[in-house]
Specification:
single chain; alpha+beta; Creatine Amidinohydrolase, Chain A, domain 1; Creatine Amidinohydrolase; 2 domains; six-stranded mixed sheet; four-stranded mixed sheet
């Protein structure tokens, strides 16, 4: 965590502020490695503080290393934040304007008379774009749990089981295998509901046709994300064509994704294949997104990315899909890590078309 703190201080120096006040739970966890829901981080030029309450103090002192003073503010002695700023000769304080509400800003301004408040913008989020070795290790660990859970679930898929039942069982298996949480509410939708990219599992028996699972696990705060689509019953010629088109689009995008490649161009590679196959307008979402302490974070692989290019340390999903309203849909999703000179696929789950006998 010391390296992350030093990077934050460097960014703070470039911003020209004397201190940074971090109130985002996600950003505080990134900086300290500690998960707490009631607290904040204050970084000055010479000192750094984790401000928490009595519920977390023992765990925080044991877990947080790397240059932080872990304290429980004594509110009886006045405004602890103002006191710390005065002690560290803070004349200007950067705050997370993307996180703090207007009411919160007004309160902060009132609490810190004479101290200039500076917008920090995406200062910490910009650091989170580039995953270090520990972060990558956590994401891979989460992905392996998700893959194992899915492999265990496949033989249990049969006629009569409901979408909600299968979603719950997949989530249970991920937690049983060591996930601290699920990345998001598991998507398990079949038949006509598979045409909904973010469909909600229904308490009905799975329908014949496409059955899409979109799910992930969390390890040490880091998420994984994958999608696999199988077929309940036998796939007809059109379903095979759709599945193979989605897979072709995904493999083509994965083949070109690399350091220096334009985010928007990656989206175009996959989209052009789907459009040319006769499914223009059936791929309505972006090709992918970043994954880390949040399931959706920068960077994005979409047409609006402009001249942004992929950089070493970024992890993105690649998830093209085809959705035919009122009929069915198909999506396949992997995670890719951008490495020097190229990229590597962090997903090991097979992608051949699987038919579930009914």
């Amino acid at each position: 965590m010391q390296k992350r703190l030093e990077k934050a201080k460097k960014k703070l120096s470039e911003l020209g502020a004397d201190a940074l006040y971090v109130t985002s739970e996600i950003n505080a966890r990134y900086l300290t490695g500690f998960d707490f829901s009631d607290g904040s981080v204050l970084i000055t030029k010479n000192e750094s503080y984790v401000l928490t309450d009595f519920r977390y103090i023992e765990a925080a002192k044991k877990s947080i290393t790397g240059g932080y003073n872990v304290i429980v503010p004594d509110r009886a002695k006045g405004d602890y934040l103002e006191n710390l700023c005065r002690e560290n000769d803070v004349k200007s304080l950067a705050f997370e304007d993307n996180v703090l509400s207007y009411a919160g800003y007004q309160s902060l301004k009132k609490r810190l008379p004479g101290i200039e408040l500076v917008c920090a913008g995406s200062l910490i989020e910009d650091l989170r774009l580039y995953k270090d070795a520990e972060e990558v290790e956590n994401i891979i660990a989460a992905q392996r749990i998700a893959e194992q859970a899915f492999a265990e679930l496949l033989p249990e898929i049969r006629a009569g089981r409901t979408e909600t039942e299968l979603a719950a069982e997949l989530e249970y298996r991920m937690k049983r295998l060591g996930a601290e949480d699920i990345s998001f509410k598991t998507i398990c939708v079949s038949g006509t509901a598979s045409a909904l990219p973010h469909g909600v599992p229904r308490n009905i028996p799975i329908e014949r046709g496409f059955l899409t699972f979109d799910f992930g696990a969390v390890v040490n705060g880091y998420h994984s994300d994958m999608t696999r689509t199988v077929v309940v019953g036998r796939a007809d010629d059109e379903m095979r064509r759709i599945y193979n088109t989605v897979l072709k689009a995904q493999l083509a995008a994965e083949a070109v994704i690399a350091e220096g490649y334009k985010n928007a161009d990656a989206d175009k590679v996959a989209r052009d294949i789907i459009d040319e196959a006769g499914y223009k307008g059936c791929f309505g979402h972006s090709l992918g997104h970043g994954v880390g302490l949040m399931i959706h974070e920068a960077p994005g692989l979409h047409a609006r990315a402009g001249d942004a290019v992929l950089e070493v340390g970024q992890i993105v999903t690649v998830e093209p899909g085809i959705y035919i309203e009122g009929k069915y849909g198909c999506r396949i999703e992997d995670m890719m890590e951008i490495i020097p000179g190229g990229a590597r696929n962090l997903t090991n789950c097979p992608k051949e078309l699987i038919e579930i006998p009914v």
